[in-house]
Every structure is written in C-alpha cells, then in structure tokens.
Amino acid sequence: MSGSHLPTGSGGVDDAVTAALQVVDRRGFLPRSRLRWAHEDRPLEIGHGQTSSQPSTVAAMLRLLRVPAGASVLDVGAGSGWTTALLARLVGPSGEVLGVERHADLAAWGAANVRRAAMPWAREVPAVPGVLGAPRPDGWDRVLVSAAAEHLPDALVDQLAAGGRMVVPVRHEMTLVERDGDGAVRVSAHGTYSFVPLVED
Q1: Strands 185-192, 173-179: parallel, antiparallel or unpaired by DSSP?
Q2: How confident is the model at residue 132 (pLDDT cuts 50, 70, 90)?
Q3: Cα–Cα distance, 150 to 49 (Å, whole number)
Q4: How would residue 81 be classed by pLDDT, with cut points 50, 70 and 90?
C-alpha cells in the first residue's frame, strides 16, 4: 500500500499508527482478486459478506484505541488478519494480540496471513461458538471491534481490564469505552462509520 494513500498525523500515537500502516502492507491480507484496489481508501470484500475496512477508518480506530507497547489486545472480527497484524506492530514483542473470527475458513486464512507477518506475539483463531470475544481472568488492555453492534456489547465490556480502552462501532457510531482503575466505565461517541454487523450469538 502506497504511503501517499495513508492517513497521517502528528504526535506519538499518530506517528506509531502511520508507521504501522506503512509497514504492514494491506496487500498481504487481501484475496488475489482484490489486490488491484489495495491502494485505495475503501473497504474491500474478503468473502462471507466481510470486508477489509478502509485504511482511513482503521487508522481512526487505532488512534482512538491508543495502543501502548506491551499491551494485551483482543481483535474481534479479525477477518483477514490485517488489523491483528497492525495491532501486533503497535504492541511489539512484549505485547500480545489475539484475533478472533467467527467464520472458520476466514479465520484459517487470516491466521496464515498473520503468521506470514512474522510477529509471533500475535495470532488469529476461530471464535468459540456462542462466545463473543475471548474472556480471560485479567481482561484485555485494549479491545478492537471491527463490526457494528446494535447495542454496546456487555460481554466485551466485561472483558476490558482496569485502565483499558475498547473501540466498537455501535449502530455505526464509533464508540470509545474506557474502564478506569476502579472499574467505572465511561462511554463516548466519535463519529459515524459503516461496518458489517456484529453477530453476538
């Protein structure tokens, strides 16, 4: 993907996101039939009604998420594995990224794409049937959701660690969820975007 087509910004988070988008080439996470459009700032179909989100939207989500080095990150709706690899670039070798995808064959393809990205602290797996996300005892420092929910998904809010942040489209409104050190949750809206629907069953 050409750098001239990437959204840019200034400051630490913006610079890290811009660098990740420049290094993790979208072309490595697209079906062959979509490669000719890889440089364009638009969503591209990857099968099963799913898309690779447009780069400017991905950049906005990652900047809002504010992913620090060493963080543990859950990537819900990982699809082709592109966002999982971008998150892996942001957290670095001291971090951990788990992508989950409900379509088993997409998950297998995405997992292979992530492995080729050569960042072993990141992986993609099929979602467990009937489970949204991937619960774990200490929660996740960051949660990225790349599908639109009809309502704020409580199951994912519960998986957010103290001090954590989650970015999730709710009825296509980009929503930031922040959990403070005492467990209190704050929710704020940050613009309207278009996403495929989040399936919660």
Answers
A1: antiparallel
A2: very high
A3: 18
A4: very high
HEC secondary structure over the chain: CCHHHCCCCCCHHHHHHHHHHHHCCHHHHCCHHHHHHCCCCCCEEEECCEEECCHHHHHHHHHHHCCCCCCEEEEECCCCCHHHHHHHHHHCCCCEEEEEECCHHHHHHHHHHHHHCCCCCEEEEECCCCCCCCCCCCCEEEEEECCEECCCCHHHHCCEEEEEEEEEEECCEEEEEEECCCCCEEEEEEEECCCCECCCC
Domains along the chain with CATH numbers:
3-192 (3.40.50.150)
pLDDT digits (tens, 9 = 90+) for 157-197: 999 999 999 999 998 789 999 999 888 999 998 877 666 56
Q: Does 53 qualify as catalytic in the annotation?
A: yes
Options 2, 10, 53, 56, the catalytic residue: 53
Cβ neighbours around 156 below 10 Å, total: 23
Give Cβ neighbours of residue 186 (< 8 Å, ≥ 6 apart). 177, 178, 180
